[in-house]
Amino acid sequence: MEVVMSRKVGLWIDHRSAFIVSIDERGLTTSVIESHVEPRFRFSGGSRSSSAHGTEVASEQKRDKRYMHHLERYYEQVVDAVADARRILVLGPGEAKVELKNRIEKSRVKMKPVVNVEPSDKLTEPQIVARIREYYKYFE
User: How far apart are CA 140 and CA 84, in angstroms?
Assistant: First the structure.
């Protein structure tokens, strides 16, 4: 008789990194995925061009496009890391947690996991592990 593994995942994510906690019959494991995304720069005073052809605006659009492309690759890595989970708890301070949830729901994983999102301030790794263990106590 084959034993079906039931993997539960919790993660804390922002645009810089994702700290992933996996819980299954074998125990608890953690991993980190770094985004390597360059920070977004916003210029004060809007995006006015000092030249007649708008080279500053074009340059800013190019940076934004590159930023979004890096984020997309980062989210793909995180989705791949949690693809076989039955349940996923996503924690984080900003919009990355919702962006990841949407990405998971649109992904082509065979079995769609149950994804819950909760806001969270910056937490240490032990705090993240404790929060995720506490959350999954209710599903045992």
Answer: 18
CATH code of the domain made up of 8-39+53-137: 3.30.420.60
CB 28 within 8 A of CB 125: no
CA distance 41 to 115: 31
Around 85, how many Cα atoms within 13 Å sit in the side-chain half-sphere? Answer: 25
Structure confidence by residue, pLDDT tens digits, 72-85: 999 999 999 998 89
pLDDT tens-digit series, residues 103-127: 998 887 667 788 999 999 999 999 9
pTM of the predicted protein model: 0.80
Rounded Cα gap, residues 128 and 126, in angstroms: 5
Report the distance separating Cα 105 and Cα 108, nearest Å: 8
